C-alpha cells in the first residue's frame, strides 16, 4: 500500500514538473518571438538620425542629451499599411525601449497581441481607447506590460528610486503629425482603479495644471520641469511588479514638440 502511495506521489510530482517545464518553455518562446518581432519592426520601419554635438542644456531638462532634437525617423506610411492602428513610436535608447504605439477599439486586444496583430503575451504599448486620437487630449494614457524578462515597460519602474530621473534620460514619442521629447516630471506607485490618476482631461488649462500639481506632490522624485499653459501630458502606466499584480507604476511627462 505504501509503495502504491509513493508511486502515486512520484507520478503526481513528475506531472507537475512537466507542466511547469512546459509553461516555462512556452514563456521563453513567447519572449523570443516578441523580441524578434519588435526588432524586425524597428529595423524595417525606423532609422537613426545622426546627432551633432551641441553644448548647454535645456532649462527644463535635468541632465545631458538635452540638446538633441530627435533620435530616429519613423516610416509611418509603411507602418500603417501593416496596421492602421499604429499611431506612434516610443523610444528611449538608454532603457532599451524602441516600440510602436497602437490605439485599438478597446483596452483588451493589445494586452495579448503585438503591434503587428500577432498573438503574444507581451502585448503592445497602447493608448487608452477613451483618449482622442493624435494625443489631442490634455493628458493621454499609454499602457505597457512589465514583463519578467525586463522588456516592454519594465524599465520604467526604475524611476521609483529617483535615480533614473537624475540621469535625465532622453525619451521620444514620434507620431505621423509631430515628434515630441518627453520631459518626465513625476512618477509613483498606484492602482489601476485610482480615478484621480487615470482621469482624462480634454484640454490644457487650469484643470490639467491642478492634475499636474497633484501628481507632482505624490512623486518619488522632485522635478525641475515647469508647466506651460499649452503643455499636454502623457502618462506611461505599467504593473509595479509583474503583470499579475494590481499595483501600477505611473510615469508622467510633458509632450514637448521637437523643432
Task: Pick out the low-confidence regions.
Answer: 12-30, 54-67
Helical fraction: 25-40%
Rg is 21 Å
Please tell me the overall pLDDT. 85
Q: Between the first and last Cα atoms, what is the distance in angstroms?
A: 80 Å
What oligomeric state is this?
single chain
- Secondary-structure-derived class: alpha+beta
Count of distinct strands: 10
How many distinct helices? 4
Order of SSEs, N→C?
Answer: HEEHEEEEHEEHEE
How can the largest sheet be summarized? Answer: 8 strands, mixed, barrel
Strand content: 15-25%
Categorize the overall geometry: globular
Strand order of the largest sheet: 3-4-5-6-9-10-8-7
What is this entry, summarized?
This protein is α+β, with helices and mostly antiparallel strands and 259 residues long. It has helices at 2-45, 76-82, 163-167, 206-217; strands at residues 46-48, 72-74, 86-92, 97-102, 125-127, 139-143, 172-174, 179-191, 232-239, 247-257.
Tell me what the structure shows.
This protein is an alpha+beta fold and 259 residues long. The protein has helices at 2-45, 76-82, 163-167, 206-217, and strands spanning 46-48, 72-74, 86-92, 97-102, 125-127, 139-143, 172-174, 179-191, 232-239, 247-257. The strands form 2 sheets. Strands 3-4-5-6-9-10-8-7 form an 8-stranded mixed beta barrel. Strands 1-2 form a two-stranded antiparallel sheet. β9 and β10 form a beta hairpin. It is globular, with a radius of gyration of 21 Å. The termini are far apart. The model is unreliable at 12-30 and 54-67 (pLDDT under 50).
Amino acid at each position: 500500500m505504501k509503495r502504491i502511495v509513493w508511486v502515486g506521489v512520484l507520478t503526481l510530482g513528475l506531472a507537475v514538473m512537466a507542466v511547469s517545464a512546459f509553461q516555462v518553455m512556452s514563456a521563453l518562446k513567447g519572449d523570443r518571438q516578441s523580441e524578434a518581432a519588435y526588432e524586425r519592426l524597428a529595423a524595417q520601419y525606423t532609422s537613426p538620425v545622426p546627432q551633432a554635438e551641441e553644448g548647454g542644456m535645456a532649462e527644463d531638462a535635468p541632465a545631458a542629451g538635452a540638446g538633441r532634437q530627435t533620435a530616429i525617423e519613423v516610416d509611418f506610411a509603411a507602418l500603417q499599411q501593416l496596421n492602421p492602428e499604429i499611431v506612434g513610436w516610443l523610444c528611449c535608447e538608454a532603457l532599451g525601449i524602441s516600440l510602436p504605439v497602437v490605439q485599438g477599439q478597446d483596452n483588451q486586444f493589445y494586452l495579448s497581441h503585438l503591434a503587428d496583430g500577432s498573438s503574444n503575451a507581451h502585448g503592445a504599448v497602447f493608448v487608452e481607447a477613451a483618449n482622442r486620437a493624435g494625443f489631442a487630449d490634455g493628458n493621454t494614457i499609454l499602457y505597457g506590460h512589465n514583463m519578467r524578462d525586463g522588456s516592454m515597460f519594465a524599465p520604467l519602474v526604475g524611476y521609483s528610486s529617483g535615480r533614473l530621473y537624475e540621469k535625465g534620460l532622453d525619451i521620444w514619442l514620434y507620431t505621423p503629425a509631430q515628434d515630441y521629447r518627453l520631459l518626465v516630471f513625476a512618477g509613483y506607485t498606484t492602482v489601476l482603479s485610482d480615478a484621480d490618476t487615470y482621469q482624462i482631461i480634454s484640454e490644457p488649462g487650469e484643470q490639467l495644471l491642478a492634475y499636474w500639481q497633484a501628481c507632482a506632490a505624490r512623486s518619488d522624485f522632485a522635478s525641475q520641469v515647469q508647466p506651460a499653459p499649452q503643455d499636454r501630458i502623457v502618462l506611461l502606466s505599467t504593473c509595479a511588479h509583474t503583470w499579475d499584480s494590481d499595483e501600477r507604476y505611473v510615469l508622467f511627462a510633458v509632450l514637448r514638440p521637437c523643432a
